[in-house]
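User: Can you help me understand a structure? I only have the sequence.
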Amino acid sequence: TTLDACQKIIEDNKPEIDQKFDLIVWHETQIVGWSFLWNIQSEQPTFGLAVADDFQGQGLGSELIDRVLEEARERHLREVFLTVVKDNEVAWKLYESRGFVKYGETVGDDGVDYWRMSADYGKLVSR
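Assistant: Let's start by predicting it. Here is the structure, written out as tokens:
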């Protein structure tokens, strides 16, 4: 994920207190990491994570996922869902280490293959 992509996502995101929770990491004046829970009141709350390329491999993604999943627990969410690019083995293994399991596949509008994953609230792992 590029710094510009992180910034664009944040700028396009509209806050909705009861529906969204976003956690943003800044380095100096740039957004370098972002994680979220969206559709919180729905049957399929959605988790997402992005870390700028230059900041990957430093534990930032792990810290973000742990903090956002703690928010899911505090909100008593029963289950959390995500999609991840199949080729992004680092990401889906991180998700698996936090209790997510693959339950399906999909092809995005971008033509890319994705895994569908979910984590049962009672099985979310604290680190």
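Now, to help you interpret it: The helical segments are 3-12, 60-74, 89-97. The chain has three helices and six strands. Let me know which part you'd like to focus on.
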